[in-house]
Specification:
Blueprint lengths: L11 H15 L19 E8 L5 E2 L2 E2 H14 L3 E13 L4 H18 L2 E10 L5 E11 L15 E4 L5 H11 L13 H9 L4 E6 L4 H13 L1 E6 L7 H10 L12 E5 L4 H9 L8 E8 L4 E5 L5 E3 L13
Parallel strand pairs: 4-5, 9-12
Antiparallel strand pairs: 1-6, 2-3, 4-6, 7-10, 7-11, 8-10, 9-11, 12-13
Helix pairs in contact: 1-3, 2-3, 5-8
Bound molecules: magnesium ion.
The site of magnesium ion has 4 residues, from strand 8.
């Protein structure tokens, strides 16, 4: 079946679409009440975030639009130190979109939400005339435990910078697909739930964390350095990237430091907790390639500096301009 303007009318076709696709995929006690807003138990400290997902193609090696729409929002909550709890899902459907694709996306969202331990409790659908594309917005609420304070300004000289695995996988997978390059690169699109949970349970002194997404590691570390007025010193030989991703980057003149991921954590921790952090991440789901990549230093000019393989120094700025549109 194809999406028509009637599916966005608010009438019976809309009702059928909601019933057949979304209510079926996300059935839970809160959503099933079908009220105008979800009333949910609260907490004293709440984290709230939203993100829209327009990735093209919607189905790609290692994931799809639905998995991405859950991971992006859940991961933003997790790296704020929050436990993700509730999500909303808004769909913008262009006429001609395939309901089979929509069902696949809805199912993938439901599976990923379950993996991440979150409930989809509210949603919306709009239909616009177009070329059959599907766009998703997710907003998420998480609860932050007392005493947890993960923020950029907390980074201080001596802290250790750790990344949870190989750089650039998601970006490289989308890019390969779009350019028709054959390889076995898969998107790393995944919830960071297990990794972040391990850090909380392990009592790690986390200063700040970010998920490595659009703009790559270079951009997120520049944000942390600017927020804390420090310099992040990285060692090029320590930066993890899969050989296939390095190969693709070499071929296209790209730098893994600027390639987006969708399931990687960059975390700054107290020096005495660095070793424990790497161990905890490596023992967690999706964290097997975690490693330390550098240290935080005092500096007059905040920023990111890379010690190159040959021992030289290179200033690493944030991504300037747009690397590749519609990777997320
Ligand atoms: Mg983020």
């Amino acid at each position: 079946m194809k999406i028509t303007l009637a599916h966005g009318s608010g009438g019976t076709s809309t009702g059928e679409l909601i019933e057949q696709v979304f209510a079926k995929a996300y059935a839970n006690p809160v959503l099933s009440r079908m009220e105008d807003s979800a009333v949910i138990p609260g907490a004293s400290r709440i984290a709230l975030t939203t993100d829209s997902f327009v990735v093209s193609p919607a189905f790609f090696p290692g994931g799809d639009l639905g998995r991405l729409a859950i991971c992006g929002t859940v991961n933003d909550l997790l790296v704020s130190g929050a436990e993700p709890k509730y999500l909303t899902a808004g769909f913008i459907l262009e006429t001609g979109a395939d309901t089979e694709d929509l069902e696949k996306i809805a199912r993938s969202m439901a599976e990923t939400a379950e993996e991440a331990g979150v409930m989809i409790v509210a949603g919306d659908t709009k239909v616009v005339e177009g070329k059959g594309e599907i766009f998703v917005n997710t907003a998420g609420v998480g609860f932050v435990a007392e005493g947890v304070d993960w923020r950029g300004p907390n980074c201080r000289p001596g802290d250790v910078i750790i990344v949870s695995g190989n750089l650039g996988d998601h970006h490289a997978a989308i890019l390969s697909r779009r350019m028709g390059i054959e390889n076995d690169i898969l998107s790393d699109c995944a919830p960071l739930t297990d990794m972040v949970g391990a850090l909380h349970r392990g009592g790690v002194a986390v200063r700040a964390a970010r998920d490595v997404t659009r703009g790559g590691l270079a951009t997120v570390l520049n944000e942390l350095a600017a927020a804390s007025g420090t310099r992040f010193l990285l060692e090029e030989t320590l930066l993890p990237a899969a050989p296939a991703v390095r190969g693709l980057c070499g071929l296209l003149g790209l730098d893994p430091l600027y390639m987006g991921n969708e399931g990687k954590l960059a975390v700054v921790v107290a020096p005495e907790d660095a070793e424990k952090t790497v161990e905890l991440l490596r023992a967690s789901r999706y964290g097997e390639n975690a490693c330390r990549i550098g240290v935080v230093e005092a500096a007059e000019e905040p920023g990111v500096l890379l010690i190159t393989e040959l021992g030289g120094q290179r200033v690493i700025g944030p991504l300037f301009g747009e690397g590749l549109p519609r990777i997320c």
